[in-house]
Amino acid sequence: MNHTSYLFFDCECANCFDGEGKICSLGYVLTDDEFNIIEKQDVVMDPKCEFDWYILSPKNKCQLAYSKDYFRAQPDFGAYYKDIKKLFTTGNRKIFGFAVDGDVSFVNTACERAGVDYIQFAAMDLRPILEKEYKQQMKLFEWCQYLKIDVVEIKAHKSVDDAEMTMLCCKALCEKLGITGDELYEKLHENVITWEYMFDVMEQRRVKREFKAKIDKLMNKKHPFPSKGPMTGKQVEVDRSIMKDPEYAYDICKRIYDHGGVLVNKVNNGGYFIYDGNLPSNVKQKYAARNNKVMNLSELEEFFSN
Q1: Scanning 120, 166, 241, 306, which has its CA 20 to 30 A from the CA of 140?
Q2: Greatest CA span in the chain, whole angstroms?
Q3: How many angstroms separate the CA atoms of 71 and 57, rounded?
Q4: SS3 per residue for 183-226
């Protein structure tokens, strides 16, 4: 009989520069379907990147469990890849985590950086389930305290210990609800995060970063050969509601730049303020009082057309 096993995991990262976490440890706890621990390990690795100075700083309350030198002395993710892939994909295994969307994306990034195939897995995120059940929002260690789980021997932000805390919270939740881990997984399947989903999320974030970088290159710059018009040489501020979507905003910013406008974060006097949708009258008055022309996107389109 192919019994279910449960895998609880957590990752720590050396840095999350450019929105991508680089794993330096992956801790896991493997249990049977009654939450009896079969195996647990902290897989510590060289992240092959620089460490964010802050996570090594004494000011950081979330200290890593090992020294920088210890991480550097370990093999990298590629050396562990086959074992991790087997761990995540073998048998009738259900995977759980806490705020696991980040951890799934970290594994995806590790595979990309190592030049290996993505590990095709899905994991249930316990955080929203706990929050909905208890109507509370807390960190993992705080959840353990709230649920009266003994954490004396457990160190927060040590991957394997975070994985064990996740397991203990899951066990406590199942006991409260009077269901098994299998039943929890099936009944609340909408909280399962797949590697494909996080791949798409990360791609969207990358696209946003790329377009934001393009916009940044246009800021405070004058076009050498602009289309001549009343905007030439004038400061132009684009409302934050537009800039929230860099891919959408880039086309607008590029056209402003091509028409001689100088994009700025905050327009002074005698420039333009561009907005979308409804703008409160007091905001319009504030910009107009400094002799700025306030235009919505439809007016801007007509402006370009003339």
Answers
A1: 120
A2: 78
A3: 16
A4: HHHHHCHHHEEEHHHHHHHHHHHHHHHHHHHHHHHHCCCCCCCC
CA torsion through residues 77, 78, 83, 85, sign: positive
Place of tokens 């997984």: 185
3-class SS at 73?
coil
pLDDT in tens, 213-257: 999 999 999 999 988 888 999 999 999 999 999 999 999 999 999
Give 162's pLDDT tier (boundaries 50, 70, 90): very high
With the C-alpha atoms ordered 189, 195, 201, 205, is the resulting torsion angle positive or negative? Answer: positive
Task: Give pTM, 2 decimals.
Answer: 0.82
- Give the integer Cα–Cα distance in Å for 30 and 86: 13
Confidence at residue 277, expressed as pLDDT on a 0 to 100 scale: 87
Q: What is the DSSP string of 38-67?
A: EEEEEEE---SSPPPGGGGSTT-SS--SS-
Q: How many CB atoms lie within 10 A of CB 46?
A: 16
What DSSP element (H or E) covers 250? Answer: helix 246-258
Element (H, E) at 258: helix 246-258
Pair of tokens at residue 44 = 């510590």
Q: Confirm if 52 and 14 have CB atoms less than 8 A apart.
A: yes
How many CB atoms sit inside 10 A of residue 250's CB?
18
- R_g over Cα of the chain: 25
